[in-house]
Structures are given as C-alpha cells and as structure tokens.
Amino acid sequence: MKKMIIAGNWKMNTLPNEAENLVSNIISGIQNKDYKSEIVVCPPFTNLQTVSTLIYNSKIKLGAQNCFYEPKGAFTGEISIPMLKFFDVEYIIIGHSERRTYFSETDELINKKAKAILESGLKPIICIGETLQEREQGKTFEILFNQLDLCLKDLKDKNFSNIVIAYEPVWAIGTGISATTEQIEEAHNEIKHYIGKKFNLNEDDIVLQYGGSVTADNSEEILSIKNVNGALIGGASLKSEIFLKIIDIAENILQS
Ligand code: PEP
C-alpha cells in the first residue's frame, strides 16, 4: 500500500493560544476516523510543549522544524535532539530551503543532523530542491542528485525505514506556484530511482513527499501521482479546515 505522510510546517507562526486552537481543531476534525495516512504537525519550538500535551493519545504525530546535531553543550541558541525527544517529537525537518537560504545551512551540516537524528531513533524529513535559475539552466537533476549524495553520505540502506525525503522546488515554496504534475512526476521518479540504485532499495520503500504551494485545490492531483508519498505543507497547514481537507483527500486516494 502507498505510504502517505501529510506534514504541516507551521514555520515561524503561532503564539501558544493560536497553536492550541489550530491543533485542537485538527484533533476534532480527525476524531473517530480511521486514517491510514500519517499526520504530522511541526510547530515552532516554543509551542512544542503545548502541542505535545494536546495531541497525546491522538493520531497526530509531532515534528520539529530544525535541530542541532550535538546532544548538549555551549551552542547558544540551538536546540538538541534529546530536548526534542523529551516532548515526544518523532520527525525533524532538516535542510528546508528557508534554512539553507537565510541561515546558510549546507548539505554537509544537514548530513550531520540526519545522522544524529537517526542515531537518536527519530526520523529526519530531509528537504531537497532546485532554484528556478537552476531549473531554467537545465541543472535540476544535477542539483538534486548532488544534494542527495551529500545529505545522505554514509547513511545505510537500513536507515531508510526512518528517513523521509521531501522534494521541494525552491521556486514553489510559499509562492502559490506549485510544480506541475509532470514536473513532480519526473522529479519523484528520478529521485526514487537514484536513491534506490545508490542504496540498493526497492523504490516503493522510499518515502518521498512533495512540498511547494500544496493547497486543498491541487492536492488531489499531486497526491495521486504514483511516487508521491504525501506532502510537506507550509501556508495551507495554518488553516485547520484546509489542512483537514488535504488529509481527507490523501485518505480517499489511499482507500481508492
Ligand atoms: C514548506 O514550508 O515546506 C512549504 C512547502 O511551504 P508552502 O506550502 O507554503 O509552499
């Protein structure tokens, strides 16, 4: 059966009362439904405790938006994986293009984070994606494969049961311009093929989300693509009714 993970990246949004409202509405919306897809919310660090308490005993899983790779020490301003584990975080987004762009994160750093997350028994959501300029120059796959080589360096095939890759074309994030079905299909086929060959994996065992301006309106088309295993959703995950609609659409696809 196709695996589907619908994850909401709340980015730097929500004060505690807003986070409480948002997650409470999501919990109410999925109550008594037998969902097969995984539902993940990734609030800012300051709301992890609130959200963690509210989702306890629900089907919603907790994600964080970043971490540092050292477990503790003199790293002012950073958050460690044990700190996140304390709040029952299961997924950690790493390599998001906003972190690469605004905080100069490199593939080498992302690789260190990925290893530390896996060693702690948590699951990285590793984001990769090309810029518009790179796409226009015909370099999309050169860029994606290079990011995969560096971000996944020294990882083992057995790690893949805990790894999620998110293909997020930089030009589609927060712009309202999603990649076309053909572009997503091509990229997902190529990425799965590349990882499958490199790690000797069955392509169906690789979990590959799409991210970039996913909405309730385009999610049916995107999530129906064979090699798409869910979505990483920014803006649309901040409105519970839209996020719930996308979850419903994912569920209908899984059960059809
Ligand atoms: C994201 O934050 O990963 C993202 C894809 O954002 P948006 O859905 O707003 O494009």
Query: Which strand order spans the largest sheet, edge to edge or round the barrel?
Result: 1-2-3-4-5-6-7-8
Low-confidence stretches: none
Instruction: Give the N-to-C terminal Cα separation.
Output: 11 Å
Element pattern in H and E:
EHEHEHEHHEHHEHEHEH
Record field, number of beta strands: 8
Whole-number total of structural domains: 1
Largest β-sheet summary: 8 strands, parallel, barrel
Q: What is the CATH-assigned architecture?
A: Alpha-Beta Barrel
Give me the CATH superfamily: Aldolase class I
Q: What proportion of the residues form beta strands (DSSP E)?
A: 15-25%
CATH topology: TIM Barrel
- CATH C-level class: Alpha Beta
The gross shape turns out to be globular
Give every kind of bound small molecule, once each: phosphoenolpyruvate
Q: How many alpha or pi helices?
A: 10
Q: How much helicity do the residues have? A: 40-55%
Mean pLDDT comes to 97
| Helix/strand structural class | alpha/beta
What's the alpha carbon Rg, rounded to whole Å?
17 Å
Question: How would you summarize this macromolecular structure in one to three sentences?
Answer:
By secondary structure, the protein is an alpha/beta fold. 41% of the residues lie in helices and 16% in strands. The protein has a single domain, classed as TIM Barrel (Alpha-Beta Barrel).
